[in-house]
Design goal:
Rossmann fold; 6-stranded mixed beta sheet; 292 residues; 4-stranded parallel beta sheet; alpha/beta; Hypothetical Protein Tm841, Chain: A,domain 3; 2 domains; globular; 12 helices
Length: 292
């Protein structure tokens, strides 16, 4: 039996290679959008584009994993690991963390002590950085209690910014206020690119960028401004980039980040899962970072 394993949810947007290499248990999040099922496309974002072309006005709905989903994942991992670190989607956006906590309570008393949970107050690229840190800490031989404390200290340190081209999806789902969504639309009309971020676990405004020719450039300019002091100090910055079926845009952003400093390390690029995907919509890009 190995010492410490990891359970997370699909919102972390981890690449398949990382999941398989580190034997991570990933709990799926359910999506309900029957109008998209028959539409062409290799992923949800491509189907969303088709829906727009056809004038389909419905919006997708996601539902949190059930406690049973997490219970199954915990029990499976506990067969192979002495203890489990649960890295979970922000509780301010979804009831996923609550389901994980309920599932832990269904375990035998002795097994409950073997499962430690973290509310990341983040998602997608930001949530993924917590998983990467957990992997590193396990490889360093740290104890589970020490790892969870280290991860808790990162909740206020891991930053994620992004641009949603059209806020209609997230507004319709009630995850962004009409005021913020209206501000994004108005800014876009005059060539200003508004950014969003996670703050205290919820999506909110992160200011604007002017003079950027496209979304990757706008995000990079914001990232450069936010990390200027850190770069002067010579600290390393770890980055994860996720996207709404805009791989070329994500790759251009990766190139800009890596070219700007040899201390910038992009851990991976990956497509956004349905959890945030149905809210953010096509061509969204998120960039999360942490000062190592």
């Amino acid at each position: 039996m190995q010492k410490i394993g990891i359970v997370t949810d699909e919102a972390a947007d981890l690449p398949k290679e990382i999941i398989e290499k580190h034997q991570i248990g990933v709990v799926p999040v359910k999506m309900f959008w029957p109008e998209l099922e028959s539409l062409p496309g290799d992923n949800t974002f491509q189907k969303m584009r088709e829906a727009e072309k056809l004038g389909i006005k419905t919006f997708g709905k996601t539902s949190q994993p059930s406690a049973k989903d997490f219970l199954d994942a915990f029990e499976k991992q506990l067969q192979n690991f002495e203890k489990i670190i649960g890295v979970i989607l922000t509780s301010k956006l979804s009831g996923t963390f609550n389901s994980a906590a309920q599932a832990r309570n269904f375990l035998k008393n002795e097994d409950q002590k073997r499962v430690l949970l973290l509310d990341t107050l983040n998602a997608s690229a930001g949530e993924a950085l917590f998983v990467i840190k957990a992997i590193e800490s396990i490889q360093q031989g740290k104890e589970a209690g020490e790892i969870i404390k280290d991860l808790e200290s990162l909740v206020s340190q891991i930053q994620m910014i992004g641009i949603i081209p059209d806020p209609k999806w997230v507004e319709a789902a009630g995850r962004m206020s009409p005021l913020v969504a209206s501000g994004i639309r108005q800014a876009a009309k005059i060539g200003v690119r508004p950014l969003i971020k996670f703050k205290d676990g919820v999506l909110t405004s992160s200011g604007i960028v002017t003079g950027a020719k496209d979304i990757p450039t706008a995000i990079f300019k914001k990232f450069e401004g936010e990390t200027k002091t850190v770069k002067k100090q010579g600290k390393k910055i770890r980055v994860v980039i996720t996207h709404g079926d805009d791989l070329s845009g994500a790759e251009r952003l990766k190139e800009m980040v890596e070219r700007s400093s040899e201390n910038n390390e992009v851990a991976f690029l990956n497509i956004i899962d349905n959890v945030l995907g149905t809210l953010a919509g096509p061509d969204t890009i998120f960039l999360a970072w942490w000062e190592i």
